[in-house]
Each structure stands twice: as structure tokens, then as C-alpha cells.
TrEMBL record:
Entry keywords, A to Z: Protein transport, Transport
Domain of life, source organism: Eukaryota
Family matches, as InterPro entries: Mog1, Mog1/PsbP_a/b/a-sand
Organism encoding this protein: Punica granatum (Pomegranate)
One Pfam family matching this protein: Mog1
GO cellular component assignments: nucleus
Protein's name according to its UniProt entry: Uncharacterized protein
Assigned protein family: Belongs to the MOG1 family.
Keyword Protein transport: yes
């Protein structure tokens, strides 16, 4: 059993709510975050959750969208994909229906070699990346929920000074929820309180 305290947390000024552990801190208190993102991090483990609102990519089929976004993320971060991407089936999200238009969600998981900040490839960490794509057709929005779980910290990475180099300590060993469970909590408890957030 995990000793990780979880709570419902507001995003985007309370327009969206979801659930994740209290150990995750709001990054916007430390640095600027784009208006279309909310970023929370557990600095002691270098684990992070990113919630991002994007204009819908209508040309993407639902059954390929999460994998496409994960590959796009790897390209954007100049990350090497270490393992093949696994994508889930398309699931209906009836709680996110708006104007009689249902939403769907797909997830994808992969491992990447990612450098922190401006560090080069020689400092890449091996990170498991979980991505959920919630497709809100009624408001033409792709919501991305991305969770980063470091598996192997490079000694040259700036992260090594905080969390230590080498294999990451398994969450269960320190009595907290594994990142896979944190990710599931975040996307399965995603609710929208104010749909005007999406309407310009």
C-alpha cells in the first residue's frame, strides 16, 4: 500500500480538475509555463506530469493519435526512442461529452533518451514516457497528459545532482505510487468544470 497522499487538483484556474499525488509541485511557481500548459513535478524523483491543450489535429485517426503525439514529442525534444511505442485501444470518455459530442481517449507508452534543458546527447537519461490524448471534438481540442518517469539517470545529467545517477529507485521501494499509477489517476479523473476555457 502506498503512503502517497493524493488529492483532486485544479488546473487552468480550476476550469479542469484531476487527481494526482500532493508530492507534485506546480512548476509555474518557479518558472514560466505556456498558457496552454500546466506542469507539475516531484523534484526529489525528477518525475513530472504535463497537461497541454492543443488545437485538434483532425487529420489524425483516433486509433493512432496518442502514438503520433508521443513520436512528435520525441522529435521535439530531440530524443531517441529506445523502445517501441505501445498504444491502447480507443476508449470512450462519456464524462467529457459536450454538446452531445462524445470525447475519446487513447494512451501510448514508450521509452526515450532525453537530455535535460540545454544539455547535449552525452547527458541523456532513459525515461519512460506515458501519454494520454483526450480528444474533445466539441471544442476542437486535443488534450495531452504526459508523464515522465526516469529509469536511468546519466551521471552527466543535471538531474544526477538532485536524485543521484544510475537506476532510479522503484516507487514501491520508497512507499509512493508508481508513475504508471499516477498517470492513470490523472487521465481517468480528468474532468472539465468550465468549457468556456476552450471557447475563444
Amino acid at each position: 500500500m502506498s503512503g502517497d497522499a493524493v488529492a483532486q487538483r485544479p488546473l487552468f484556474g480550476g476550469a479542469i480538475m484531476t487527481t494526482f499525488p500532493l508530492r507534485f509541485e506546480d512548476v509555474s511557481k518557479i518558472r514560466d509555463v505556456p498558457d496552454n500548459q500546466e506542469v507539475v513535478v516531484d523534484p526529489s524523483r525528477d518525475e513530472s506530469l504535463i497537461f497541454e491543450l492543443l488545437d485538434m489535429k483532425h487529420e489524425l485517426p483516433d486509433d493512432q493519435s496518442a502514438a503520433w503525439f508521443l513520436q512528435d514529442l520525441a522529435n521535439e525534444q530531440d530524443a531517441g526512442l529506445v523502445s517501441a511505442i505501445q498504444q491502447s485501444a480507443v476508449l470512450n470518455a462519456p464524462g467529457l461529452t459536450y454538446r452531445d459530442m462524445p470525447a475519446v481517449v487513447t494512451t501510448a507508452v514508450g521509452q526515450m533518451a532525453i537530455s535535460k534543458g540545454r544539455q547535449g546527447r552525452e547527458a541523456q537519461n532513459i525515461v519512460k514516457v506515458y501519454l494520454a490524448n483526450i480528444r474533445l471534438r466539441a471544442v476542437a481540442t486535443d488534450v495531452l497528459i504526459v508523464a515522465y518517469e526516469p529509469l536511468l539517470i546519466n551521471p552527466l545529467s543535471e538531474t544526477a545532482g538532485t536524485v543521484g545517477a544510475g537506476l532510479a529507485v522503484p516507487a514501491a521501494q520508497v512507499g509512493i505510487l508508481p508513475m504508471e499509477e499516477v498517470f492513470k489517476l490523472a487521465y481517468s479523473n480528468f474532468t472539465i468544470n468550465d468549457w468556456s476555457l476552450f471557447i475563444n
